[in-house]
Amino acid sequence: MDIQSIILAAVVVSAVGIFAGILLGIASEKFKVKVDENEIKVRALLPGNNCGGCGYPGCDGLAAAIAKGEAKPNGCPVGGEAVAKAIAEIVGGDADGVRMVAHVMCAGDCNKAKDAYEYVGPKDCRFAANAPGGGPKACSFGCMGFGSCKQACQFGAISIIDGVAVVDRDKCKSCGMCVAICPRHLISMVPDEAGAIVECSSKEFGKDVKAVCSAGCIGCGICARSCPNEAIKVENNLAKVDYEKCTGCSECKSKCPAKIIK
Questions:
Q1: Fold of 37-91
Q2: What's this model's pTM, rounded to 2 decimal places?
Q3: Statement: residue 205 has pLDDT above 80
Q4: Do the beta carbons of residue 212 and residue 114 sit within 8 Å?
Q5: Do 37-91 and 200-262 agree at the fold level?
Q6: Which whole number is the average pLDDT over 3-27?
Q7: In 3-state terms, what secondary structure has residue 161?
C-alpha cells in the first residue's frame, strides 16, 4: 500500500467522523429533553426515601409533579413542614397542611382480646392472615401483633406492645407504608390533632364483640347521640368519627360504656 492510499484512507475516515459528529450534535440539540430547573431544585430538597407516601413514583415523580403545578409544595409527608416551606419558596403556593399520622384502630391487647388457637408459623401478619379463621386472634378484625407494619416502617415509628401495634406519632412521617401492608386494614391516617379516635375496627354485633374482646366497640350509638357536633355515626355496628366536625370536647369518651374512644 503506497503513501497516497494511506493518506486518502485517513482523510476519508476523518471526514466521516467529522460528518457523524456534526449529525450527532444537531440531533442532540433537536431532540434533547429540556429539564425544568425548578424540578432539579425541588428534587434536591426531597429526602430521597422513595416511600411512595406522596402518591407518586418516588421522589423524582413528586419533584416533577410539583414543578408542573400538579402537586402542592407540602406533597412530601416525610419532609414535613420545613421541606414544604423550602419548596414553596421555589415554586410558590401554600406550604400549610394538616399533618396526618398513622393510628392502629385496635386496643385488643393480650389482656383484653382472646386467641382462638395457638398459631405456629412465620411471625408475619400477612402469613398469619392465611391461617384458619384469618389468624389466631378470636376477633377477626383485631391486630395480630406479628409486626408486618413495624418491619415496613422505615422510621422506627411502630412498636408491638402487649400484642398490638402502637404508633409513635412523633416519629411517624405519614408515608402510609404501614397502612398498605396491614392485611386486616386496621391502620388509618388521622389528623395529628384529631379530637377523638375509636380504637376498634370490628363490625360484629355487640354481643359477639364482647365474647372475644373486652375493648371492642359494641355499636350502641351512645357516643353518636351525645356528640353536640354530630361528629360520630355508627355504621356497620362500628362508631366512626368525622374529624372535620370533631372539636375534641370528650363528651363521647366520657359516655362510651366500652371505654374504646381515645
A1: 3-methyladenine DNA Glycosylase II; Chain A, domain 3 (1.10.15)
A2: 0.73
A3: yes
A4: yes
A5: no
A6: 72
A7: strand
